Amino acid sequence: MPPVPETATPADTAEWAAIATVLARGDDRGRLLEILLEVRDAKGGIGISQAGLLALAERLRLFPSEAYEVATAFPAVNYAATTPYAADGCGDLVCGLLHGALGAGVCRNRCDGPRPEPVPRSFAAYRAAGGYGQLGRIMADPGAAAQMLERLSVHQAVGRAGVGFPVAEKWRQVIAAGGTPVVIVNGDEGELAIFKDRFILENDPHGVIEAALVAARVIGADQVFLYVRDDYVPIHAILRQALMEVAGAGLAEGLALELRRSGGAFICGEETALIASLEGRPARPVERPPFPTACGYLGRPTLLHNVETFYRVTAAWGGTLGSPASALLDPEVRLFSVSGRVCAPGPKPMRGLLRLADLVEIAGGMQDGHALGGMVIGGSAGALVSAADCYRPLADLLDEGLRLGTGGAIVFGATDEPRAIAARMAAYLARESCGQCGPCRIGTAHASRALAAPGPLDQHLLEDLAAVMGEASLCALGRNAGRFLGRLSIPGRGVSA
Ligand SMILES: Cc1cc2nc3c(=O)[nH]c(=O)nc-3n(C[C@H](O)[C@H](O)[C@H](O)COP(=O)(O)O)c2cc1C
Ligand code: SF4
């Protein structure tokens, strides 16, 4: 660090001391986002100042513009702010439904209300239930890898981030790419009103870690990242402790394990954007192919899965029971994140759900004074399902093309206006678009304005936007936003004009 100038104020001096302390823990430029978050934490939530950023850039041998680009790309860095970055009412869809417009924009995924301190299954309890047995097996006999991969195929494990890509196929692609791969656990969970990964990590962190370590052994990786939302603060402590226990027990020999935080934007969870942020660059998606399985973190083959995907693969080898999350080891169980106008919102593991309306009963019924008006299914670019459809067989809705995505179910009341709900969803997508490509940046903003404006809805505009965004957006955020607008413009299925 350059010396502190004589003109420095006490605040400058304190900031420079914080930067020096953070850099002493590691000054790899790939850690730039993490370094900026650590400086923010050391300053009580206030982001790094311009002078501090310039000093940091010099120390990391970055152009000032490179450091500035990263500092301003991630809301959680809180660059040059005067007030702390703190969880507050976000004003997004669920907040808006329940509390009206709030607007600070940082409390996403607390849509199930205040919660007690999590009490995860301990390392000792996990081991006592047979945990880390599969890891021990493959560490003792690397030849078991082929058999474990085969069991994954037979088990028909699929990705749980929404698309449902076969897990074994992804692992095979990484192995086929050659070289030394990297494993990434995607715990960004930035999708609107989804809290399933939080539920798993709060209850059974070792189940996720064991699966990631087994994956690393099977594909021959030497590095494992756990990438977790910045505002899942209790989970950071849980995972740090868990990683120490694993390393202390000699279960991670030859593997570098690292917890990294994401930067407070939905796009951070998109796999190529996530990898960019791990490399110290802004989280902007890149065109695929090449897919991360062949060319990911630092150009290396990369196996990246959602938290729930990792957790559930342990079932293929005989997962361990004993925590609330263990219900998910039954392949027939689906984890729904239920929020909105219900009495008991939260994560709801469900086996054989027959009708969406049954989720309301599981979640304690409708709040006083409200009748079911419908649900938003599948997240921020999901579908608005009417109350009548919620009472139809779910199988029929799925046959007609409904996608459950990551299992989000936002329940609204009969007096809630579907167009206002769609407007909030569009506003969220417009805010979270990374802005890199025109169809998404301009299209989401147009759609948000059109839906929020008074008067008849311009259906033709929605149709045009849907076509352009669906075809010309670079990543799935823009393409899914296009599909969302396309559904809204279907007569009888969309929102009223
Ligand atoms: C805008 C956007 C945000 C995403 N956010 C997440 C996320 O928070 N967590 C996640 O696991 N996948 C997220 N994904 C999907 C990832 O790109 C990737 O496909 C996924 O992590 C693969 O996991 P799976 O193989 O377990 O299904 C997101 C995708 C997009 C387009
Ligand atoms: S589609 Fe949207 S979020 Fe994706 S790269 Fe383009 S602008 Fe960014």
Automatic annotation (TrEMBL):
<feature type="domain" description="NADH-ubiquinone oxidoreductase 51kDa subunit iron-sulphur binding">
    <location>
        <begin position="419"/>
        <end position="465"/>
    </location>
</feature>
<keyword id="KW-0004">4Fe-4S</keyword>
<dbReference type="GO" id="GO:0008137">
    <property type="term" value="F:NADH dehydrogenase (ubiquinone) activity"/>
</dbReference>
<keyword id="KW-0411">Iron-sulfur</keyword>
<dbReference type="InterPro" id="IPR037207">
    <property type="entry name" value="Nuop51_4Fe4S-bd_sf"/>
</dbReference>
<dbReference type="Pfam" id="PF10589">
    <property type="entry name" value="NADH_4Fe-4S"/>
</dbReference>
<dbReference type="GO" id="GO:0008863">
    <property type="term" value="F:formate dehydrogenase (NAD+) activity"/>
</dbReference>
<dbReference type="GO" id="GO:0051539">
    <property type="term" value="F:4 iron, 4 sulfur cluster binding"/>
</dbReference>
<comment type="similarity">
    <text>Belongs to the complex I 51 kDa subunit family.</text>
</comment>
<dbReference type="GO" id="GO:0046872">
    <property type="term" value="F:metal ion binding"/>
</dbReference>
<dbReference type="InterPro" id="IPR011538">
    <property type="entry name" value="Nuo51_FMN-bd"/>
</dbReference>
<dbReference type="InterPro" id="IPR001949">
    <property type="entry name" value="NADH-UbQ_OxRdtase_51kDa_CS"/>
</dbReference>
<protein>
    <submittedName>
        <fullName>Formate dehydrogenase</fullName>
        <ecNumber>1.17.1.9</ecNumber>
    </submittedName>
</protein>
<keyword id="KW-0479">Metal-binding</keyword>
<dbReference type="GO" id="GO:0010181">
    <property type="term" value="F:FMN binding"/>
</dbReference>
<keyword id="KW-0408">Iron</keyword>
<dbReference type="InterPro" id="IPR037225">
    <property type="entry name" value="Nuo51_FMN-bd_sf"/>
</dbReference>
<keyword id="KW-0560">Oxidoreductase</keyword>
<dbReference type="Pfam" id="PF01512">
    <property type="entry name" value="Complex1_51K"/>
</dbReference>
<dbReference type="InterPro" id="IPR036249">
    <property type="entry name" value="Thioredoxin-like_sf"/>
</dbReference>
<dbReference type="InterPro" id="IPR019575">
    <property type="entry name" value="Nuop51_4Fe4S-bd"/>
</dbReference>
